[in-house]
Amino acid sequence: MAPDIQTSVVIPCYNEEKRLPVEKLLTFSSETADIDFLLVNDGSTDGTAQLIDDLGRRRSDKIKTFHLKTNQGKGEAVRQGLLKALEGESRIVGYWDADLSAPLSEILRLRQILVKQQTLDAVIGSRVKLIGRSIERKIWRHYTGRIIATLISMALGIPVYDTQCGAKLFRASPKLESLLAQPFLTRWLFDVEIIARSLLSSARWGNMSLAFHEEPLDAWAYVNASKIGPGDFPIIMKELWRIWCGYSLKLCREKKAAASKLAVRQSRKT
Length: 270
Known about the structure:
Blueprint: E1 7-13, H1 22-31, E2 35-42, H2 48-58, E3 63-68, H3 74-86, E4 92-96, H4 105-116, E5 122-126, E6 134-136, H5 139-156, E7 167-171, H6 174-179, H7 190-205, E8 212-216, E9 219-221, H8 233-269
Parallel strand pairs: 1-2, 1-4, 2-3, 5-8, 6-9
Antiparallel strand pairs: 4-7, 5-7
């Protein structure tokens, strides 16, 4: 690939002092000329702020830092990070989980899909256990994820397999910036909200929604000390309800309104 596909990847960090794989990040940064990272400190209470600032000093050409004064949740850290990344010259922006459960090499592969398929606006990683791929997930997370994914697909009306995988790339565009203009309704299901906002924008104003492509990852590994545990399932269900009320019902109304307008125009023609 030609080294001119400038890409900025946001990594949200909340109390990641002991989890952030510093050496992996430094090694990858030294091996890739056109990918930089924006580490967003989401009001951490440990030594995360100092850790990422040190990384920024060590590789000031490839690693930038951005600090939120208080903890605002992963969604807001990602949103503000992406908006900041869009201010630069990058042609592709995205976000990646701080534990690097999806190896950084997947950035290159997902980006290649965006480069080759110019009609796409976003490529989202998907954790699918297939022959020849190394996907390591806890059983409870896998089955909980399947329940959540099914409910999300029903809410959005699209067959998405894995919205919550923290490996996503987007083509930089005013369209993407508009979808990020307002804070998300949820702290954890913001990935779903990006898709929902895209669909709602298309239904409401006739703008083309983002063209998403879901790509199975070659590798993904569960990292201990994950921020989400079995006890958070009720919270996630509550966030799903917020998405249903905030997007799905509106999407249904807008689709009905659009269908009604189309029927009126067709009747006038006849």
